[in-house]
Backbone:
């Protein structure tokens, strides 16, 4: 019984360490990340952290991977839960899911912090590129469906517009989590919705 349960135990422990590391990064930032902080957040010894992740960079990469997958899953749910026969509602839900809801939004703050590794790590760069590509795919689908059903009159190709929407989200989001007083979450939502109305010809977004 012990041998059969061990893989599940190890998986659970790894997941707990990934969660604890994500919490520590969100609170302290990558530069201040310490094994001690992760161990305390997970309620284990520092030796346990090193047993599962001898290299801290490997743990940080797992945090990044989990953050990307969780964020994308949340965005997909927001889209899927909107009425399937209302392309404007679905696009609106997708647009709202892509911006931080507050200056200390934990999900976006963690992602922006982890994306900083992309310039120095192929693994982190791949995750960042994958996130962008999959967000573009989400928007492309929403725009293509809207155009195909006559709900949108697109100002350019769905793919190009999707690139622009994701880039706007990233830019606005960075200013929000950086506490730029000139670009609060509500204002950023108004701006991106205004852009979406202009490029889809849909005034009720």
Residues:
């Amino acid at each position: 019984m012990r041998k059969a349960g061990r893989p599940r135990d190890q998986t659970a422990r790894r997941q707990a360490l990934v969660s604890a590391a994500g919490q520590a990064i969100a609170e302290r930032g990558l530069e201040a990340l310490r094994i001690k902080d992760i161990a305390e957040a997970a309620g284990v010894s520092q030796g346990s952290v090193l047993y599962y992740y001898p290299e801290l960079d490997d743990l940080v990469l797992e945090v990044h991977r989990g953050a990307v997958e969780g964020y994308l899953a949340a965005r997909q749910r927001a889209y899927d839960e909107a009425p399937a026969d209302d392309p404007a509602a679905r696009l609106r839900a997708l647009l709202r899911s892509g911006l931080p809801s507050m200056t200390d939004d934990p999900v976006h703050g963690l992602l922006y912090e982890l994306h900083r590794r992309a310039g120095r790590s192929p693994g982190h760069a791949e995750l960042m590129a994958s996130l962008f590509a999959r967000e573009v795919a989400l928007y492309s689908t929403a725009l293509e469906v809207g155009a195909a059903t006559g709900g949108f009159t697109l100002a350019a190709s769905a793919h190009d517009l999707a690139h622009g929407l994701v880039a706007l989200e990233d830019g606005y989001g960075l200013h929000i989590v950086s506490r730029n007083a000139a670009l609060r979450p509500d204002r950023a939502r108004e701006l991106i919705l205004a852009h979406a109305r202009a490029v889809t010809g849909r005034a009720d977004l």
Residues 1-5 have pLDDT under 50 and may be disordered. The two ends are 56 Å apart (CA to CA).
